[in-house]
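User: For documentation purposes, I need each entry recorded in a consistent format: the amino acid sequence on its own, followed directly by the corresponding structure tokens. There are two entries in this batch. Please keep commentary to a minimum and don't merge the entries.

Assistant: Recorded as requested. Entry 1:
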Amino acid sequence: MEGLARWALAFSVGFLAVRFLRVTTRDLFAAPALQRENHRGARLPTAGGLLIVLAVLLVEAARAVIGAIGVGDEPGLDTPRSLVLFAVFAFALLGLIDDLLANGEARGFRGHVGEALRGRLSTGFLKLAGGGAVAVVLVASPGFATGRRLIVDAVLIALCTNLGNLLDRAPGRTLKVGALAYVPLAIALGGGAVGVAAAPVMGAAIALLGDDLRERLMLGDTGANVVGAVLGLAVVLGLDEPARLAVLAVVVLLNVAAELVSFSAVIDRTPPLRALDHWGRPNRAVD
């Protein structure tokens, strides 16, 4: 019960931190540098995932201060929280580069790699290559993973991150899928160290769902990167090998499928998926 209470508190604080930041940073997100056209041509602030980063930083700072006065955990980061914090900052940075500096028309893994082979590095390729490097650094932590597991787990984290981006083609889609994936994962992790480490990130992400659905801002690659990466990292840190391999198989299939078909087209042709995808979104015509 104590572990469950710690998880609930961590999740709730992450959620509330983003709602507070959303109110207090409206002018910052109105900056011209962040304005981009969304799927229907409306101009909105992008990189809403920056609020997740700031919220998680505030949560960890508050944990340290409260721990220093003898309440709750001792000050300092345990291994799961250190890795989650590094993942949040590193993957958000890669996503922010793409949100602000995206260049070229390359799409998908083949498109970005093809451009790189022709001597033109896109921000998408930097995001893919950088994401792979961050994933390796995460799983190469001392005493954590070596050999085959390092490669398998790094690929899992990188593909989960990429999947978060691939789904971010309609308001709320990445956050809805992320929330659905998080429910069984949170149950499996419970109130252990990994579950508590990931909880503020997911609470913060889900706090942006209403704004994303109503097109008040876009999650951007900044946020989609973080959601996918933290879910993948939580799988790697908290689940046993059969479960990790099962998740890896699913994300491999989905990433390969994205190179062959449009997720949006499949969703539109499948009534249950279409209903879920449109849930919470206002009925607006494409401009």
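Entry 2:
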Amino acid sequence: MVFDQDLLGQPQLRQRAALLRVYNYYRILISFGFLFLFLKESFGEFVGAVNPALFRQTILVYLFVNILIGLMSLFAPLDAFAKPTLLFTILLFDIFAFTLMMSASGGVSSGLGTFLIFTCAFGGSLIYGRSSTVLPAIAFILTIYVEFYLLFLEKTDLQNFFQAGVLGIAYFGANLFFQRASQQLRKRDQEVFKLEQINQLVVDRTRIGVIVVSSTGMIKLINNAGKKLLVIPTAPDTSDEHLPDRLLDELAEWSANKTNDPVIFHTQDSSPELIATFSVIDETNKDPDTLIFIEDSTGVQRQAQQLKLASLGRLTASIAHEVRNPLGAISHATQLLAESENLDAADRKMTDIIQRHSKRVNLIIENTLQLSRRSEPQTQDINLKAWLESIVQEYIAQREGQYIPALCSQAMLLN
């Protein structure tokens, strides 16, 4: 027989294990109840009336097996008992045990067949898929067989077959109903489990340290960023880890004042500055846990520096725009002055110098605007020899002071 397996594994195994524990308590309680009724003489006509020896042997074996399974579940991992094959075997054993006790008590007229409804209902919750429907089918077949066997022994009548048919419908109905309810519950658990995985992934991948600590400073939960910032070993078990002493002092001070202001601290003298923000998780609790967000201050400083650079770029662009307007007027006036026929050689040399330096200042403005625009850099090939020669000639011209007499004569004319 092929059993349907879980899609996510662990959540369904935990659900099966918890439900199996409840069902095992129910089986032990029912076993003691039937044994008490059998030993009580006033109930002798209710249980074990047709075949007391068979009922006694069956209830003792059933009680022994139930106690054995209960003890094994206490000392062994409960997930080991949540395998579909083992669950099917346990439920099938219950069906056979109840059928034998029902046969020893007079068939469906004894009322023991109603307990098979609970077995089929638990089967719909513990066994997933089409394999679960086999259980009510076996229970119904065995119930009909018991009635035929008792009819052959003249211990029942034909009217009880109708009651057996009603019980069969109840077997299938209870099984299908709990199958559907269990399926809906599994879907919800899967969604919750996926959300937990997503939350865990987000917390682990974030660059901000997330820490949950108890009132004594013991770490209950910490992500990878928190371990890195606080220099805590990256072992998976951090239940014995405590916060650094300096952060514990800040936490104690915050607990006394309950302010919303962030706290700046150092884990060590040589460590970078860290920013911590505290928040209480459950204020109704006497000893509430504290949620701590830790962030490296260098990242905040880097963001502030980027904002400053952006503001400086906008200011530079504005200044460059304001400088370009008078520079354009100077360059245009120099061009008009150079077209005059009354200029001598020294004056024309001065206008050339003004034009050259105007272009140089305009190039500086263009470069500044390019930096503020964050555009892609563009390479340009230059003749290094000609560029160096122009620099040398300009330096020599300034050194020899060729344009100084012209400036002096222009100043005298203006006076």
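Summary note for entry 2:
The chain has three domains: 10-200, 205-296, 380-415.
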